[in-house]
Amino acid sequence: MKVILKETIESLGIVGDEVTVANGYARNYLLPQKKAVLSTSANRNLIERVKKQLDLKDVENRTLAEAMSKKIQGVVCTISAKVSEEDRLYGSVTTRDIVDQLQAQGLEVERKMVMLSEPIKTLGSYIVPVQLHPDINPEITVKVVAEEQVA
Predict the structure, then answer these.
(1) Is 123 found in the same domain as 98?
(2) 0.85 cut: is pTM over it?
């Protein structure tokens, strides 16, 4: 069955692609979840218009992301945490802590943008990428210090 994707599906393609899938996959998953529509001439025209609008939004978002990237690149984010005698943190530093610190510095960043592979559990300095756009990933430095050193 031929369908047009309404959202990017990693194993099939990106928004607007016309793909051939098994009838059951289309009927039981893609169509009910509204991830695709049947491939008809009316739907193709509709998807083309939506694709043009998305392209315009993408250009605008990229411009905003480039401007934000210049502000974020090289920012140092210092987070103080309670530590044990072996310099291990009680708890961990997560994306939420990093975002709170960035917002305190006047930078508007969402949690999902901070690409922290796993929570930070030891003292030190870490390079953390921030994904503002699929192609724009400035890096910030996160320094985790013991609370006594900050006070």
Answers:
(1) yes
(2) no
